[in-house]
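Re: that chain you flagged

S.,

Sorry for the slow reply, it's been a week of failed gels. I finally had a moment to sit down with the sequence you sent. For the record, here it is as I used it:
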Amino acid sequence: MGFLTTHVLDTAHGCPGNAIRVQLFRFRDNRRELLNEMITNADGRTDSAILPESEFLVGKYELVFAVGDYFKAKGVELADPAFIDDVSIHFGIADEGSHYHVPLLVSPYSYSTYRGS
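Prediction finished late last night. Pasting the structure tokens below so you have them in one place:
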């Protein structure tokens, strides 16, 4: 069985994105279902897999990272509304036997992601 992990890197400050709320949703029958919600640790990672083996299924998913709150807490002056507030990443899991890793590299004005290992 596979599992899903994530982490956040703050590219504006060159450090892990700690204390960021991350929500995981699954899309099923045209509905968005909240599966998990975690806070990143000092290393910018969740303390465990955000989608463990027992719940890992082929399907469409969404990770939502509350990065606007993170940058505000760091004292970054943001426009109102912020250019980037919540980052939403939609992705698919096609192989139940694989480890999926979806990192987020973020600043107040840009972000990127990729399928990591």
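What I noticed first: Strands lie at 3-10, 15-16, 21-28, 31-39, 59-66, 86-93, 99-107, 110-113.

Talk soon,
D.
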